[in-house]
Amino acid sequence: MASTSNSDSVPLINNDNTVSYLRKVGSAAFYGVSSFMITVVNKTVLTSYSFPSFLFLSLGQMIASILVLYIGRKIRLVSFPNFSKDSFTKIFPLPLIYLGNMMFGLGGTQALSLPMFAALRRFSILMTMLLELKILGVRPTFAVQVSVYAMIGGALLAASDDLSFNMHGYIFVMITNALTAANGVYSKKKLEANEMGKYGLMFYNSLFMILPATIGTYLIGDLKKAIEYPQWNEPFFVIQFLLSCVMGFILSYSTILCTHYNSALTTTIVGCLKNICVTYLGMFIGGDYVFSWLNCIGINISVFGSLLYTYVTFRRKQAPDKNIRNDKIESV
User: Fold this and answer.
1) CA nearest neighbour of 178 among 115, 106, 124
2) Do 256 and 201 meet the contact criterion of CB atoms below 8 Å apart?
3) What is the DSSP string of 135-183?
């Protein structure tokens, strides 16, 4: 009887492991594709079509997130708490970080070529590393530090000979990097500290910031520029604009899904791999990359640092997983 029980249980565990593995790989691939696609679509809308307002585009992404989550809740696909007087207090300062991250990120995408945008975005890894050391007491290994410094060094070398240099773009990207690091730390704290949940954070981040963002866009004059944009009658532009809006929500959801089934570390690794694709494809998309040998060498050093970082962190993450699988098989 014992042998029959053991033989029956092994396929079940194998099936469970297979499903778990597919969820991990599927969610990671979903996040990678989503992150890659929104970068390319945003760049096409803002640069190739010369859409005048990244602020208006960020409004569209927030509205899309609110509508999708609201409808999803109505048809019971997702759930999150009802609005209450202390809802804003529970998630503060995430709405401000979310708004700033979206707006400055789109501003950097519009102002810089994709290779330089991807290279400078790697500063967010350095900022996250320093923030984790300061707040969480997590000290990175020597190999991780070397890979991060290679990414940063390559980005600085590329920036030193960036023939399409744009000061506003550089400032926007560095602010985005700081906000990305802060968002990671505060999101983790908020998810552990209250009952809002991942969908609640996504919904209320957009809901609380939609009015201030609309007022700001109107006062700056971007709302008028966007409404008077002459290509609203172009079907291909409208499709890509709407796709960008929906992709804003999909990116947020795919990030949470990847972290849920894997870990924040895996999400960071996938983001690194995605940026490598963006770097090289961006040399041909948007039409604003100006080649120079020093800039190209710097970008490639930064890419090498990304690959090294991916290898080091993935190898470190995989080691305990093997032990867990071995323990499960032996126990059977």
Assistant:
1) 124
2) no
3) II-PPPPHHHHHHHHHHHHHHHHHHHT-TT--HHHHHHHHHHHHHHHHH
Q: Given this model, what pLDDT does residue 88 score?
A: 86
Does residue 194 have a pLDDT over 90?
no
pTM: 0.69
Alpha-carbon distance 63 to 249, whole Å?
9
Over residues 144-166, the pLDDT tens digits come to: 888 888 888 888 888 777 666 78
Q: What pLDDT sits at residue 214?
A: 93
Distances (CA, A) of 163 to 26, 242, 296: 39, 32, 11
CB 178 within 8 A of CB 58: no
Query: Cα separation of 26 and 4, whole Å?
Result: 33
- Residues 6 or more apart whose Cβ sits within 8 Å of residue 82: none
pLDDT at 10 over 50: no
Are the C-beta atoms of 101 and 209 separated by less than 8 Å? no
C-beta separation of 53 from 217 below 8 A: yes
Among 54, 62, 39, smallest CA distance to 113 is for 39
pLDDT tens column, 60-110:
999 999 999 999 999 988 888 888 888 888 888 888 888 888 888 888 888
Greatest Cα pair distance, the chain, in angstroms, is: 78
**Where on the phi/psi map is residue 162: left (φ > 0), alpha (ψ -120 to 50), or beta?**
beta
Q: Is 165 left (phi over 0), alpha (psi -120 to 50) or beta?
A: beta
